[in-house]
Design goal:
alpha/beta, Nucleotidyltransferase, domain 5, four-stranded mixed sheet, 15 strands, binds zinc ion, ROK family transcriptional regulator, ATPase_NBD, WH_DNA-bd_sf, ROK
Length: 388
């Protein structure tokens, strides 16, 4: 096995043992010897040191075939570190987690949105190194990056991110060259969905996650570990479904896309045109200001709010009918909406979905989406490295 021999050449028995246990599952010292060809004395010495360091735990399961029971060894969650990265518009957010996707450290760094992608990725690599260098945990074995926009089927290339003007950016290759560990890239909202699907015990079939901020993104993730697989890239395209014939021109080049009705920049522009620049104060959620104006009977506000809520509900009803998730999470700008807006959205969706789905339908605001994206990226890094 190439990776194993490379570890042996480096003389890192810790890495060999962790990799062996990851691939074989819990195993006794004898079994590890059979797999690796290492001597009993070498294994015994390395295992004792790793148990002392908290990297390995002794399990109670016996292997009867050798005559006397043998203690099996299991890697501790702390024995693994992975890095999750989220590239947002103008901000890089990254964190290190263990094998249980628990975030140990988190940092953010701003970047110039007009910079070429290679420059932004160089900065990502610098930030990952800085985080890893300052960390005292186990070595980092993999990195996953969440980016708004579509990725290729092998999770190596960012195909298109309209907001940043990125097209066919070889994210994984670029970062692997700089960091020397496996790197994968995925759609950021899919990673948010992945993180939430792993955390929420009530979720049986899966989660659909709708994130609205500068654009509209959807993520769908099944419940349970190890079942995450890259699907068609369509989750990144939901925002570019036409909802208004001959509507406003969208950044994608089409007209009347969902984004042009519900995404924050378009919504702000529309409010400004209606003479409601006062609603646009950056420290206040847009949908909250809109609700307040609509409640006062302002005709433009009522019209804009109705458009936003109807179109979000329409899109989500289609998502529910297609994927039948048992939980729909709305993040970003929609999570900041007042309860009355969320309630109205729930009612409209319930009216529009298939009768069999109405009773169990659940929609909740998702807070801390950015952290979920970093945690989801780390979870993906674990899954592709076979650590979870
Ligand atoms: Zn569009």
């Amino acid at each position: 096995m190439a990776t194993l021999s490379r570890d042996l050449e480096r003389g890192s028995y810790e890495a060999v043992l962790l990799r062996t246990l990851r691939e074989s599952g819990p195993a006794s010292r004898t079994r590890i010897g059979e797999i690796t060809g290492l001597s009993a004395a070498t294994i015994s010495k390395a295992v004792s040191a790793m148990v002392d360091k908290g990297l390995l735990r002794e399990g109670a399961v016996a292997e009867p075939r050798m005559g006397r029971p043998a203690v099996t060894l299991v890697p501790a969650p702390e024995a693994v570190t992975v890095c999750g990265v989220q590239i947002e518009y103008g901000t890089i957010r990254l964190g290190l987690t263990d094998a249980e996707s628990r975030i140990r450290t988190l940092r953010t760094a701003p970047f110039d949105v007009t910079a070429p992608p290679s420059e932004v990725l160089d900065l990502v690599a610098t930030e990952v190194r800085r985080l890893v260098d300052a960390d005292t945990g186990a070595p980092c074995v993999g990195v996953a990056v969440g980016i708004p926009g579509a990725v290729d089927e092998n999770r190596r290339i960012n195909r298109l991110t309209i907001n940043l003007g990125w097209r066919d950016v070889p994210v994984a290759e670029h970062l692997e060259r700089l960091l020397g560990v496996p790197v994968v890239v995925d759609h950021h909202v899919r990673l948010m969905a992945l993180a939430e699907a792993r955390l929420d015990d009530r979720v049986r079939s899966g989660i659909a996650y709708l994130y609205v901020r500068r654009g509209v993104g959807l993520g769908v993730a099944p419940a349970g570990r190890g079942r995450y697989a890259v699907g068609p890239a369509g989750e990144a395209y939901l925002g570019h479904t036409r909802v208004v014939e001959d509507g406003e021109l969208c950044r994608c080049g089409a007209r009347g896309c969902l984004e042009t009705v519900v995404a924050e920049p378009y919504l702000r522009a529309r409010l400004e045109r209606a003479g409601h620049a006062d609603v646009l104060r950056a420290d206040r959620p847009v949908l909250e200001g809109l609700r307040r104006l609509a409640a006062q009977g302002d005709p433009a506000a009522v019209e804009i709010e109705t458009d936003v809520v109807r179109n979000l509900a329409g899109a989500l009803a289609t998502v529910v009918n297609l994927f039948t998730p048992d939980l729909v999470l709305v993040g970003g700008m929609v999570a900041e909406a007042p309860e009355a807006t969320i309630t109205r959205m729930r009612e409209l969706i319930r009216e529009r979905i298939f009768p069999l789905l109405r009773e169990d339908f659940r929609l909740e605001p998702a807070h801390r989406s950015e952290e979920a994206s970093v945690r989801g990226a780390a979870t993906l890094a674990l899954e592709v490295s076979h650590f979870s």
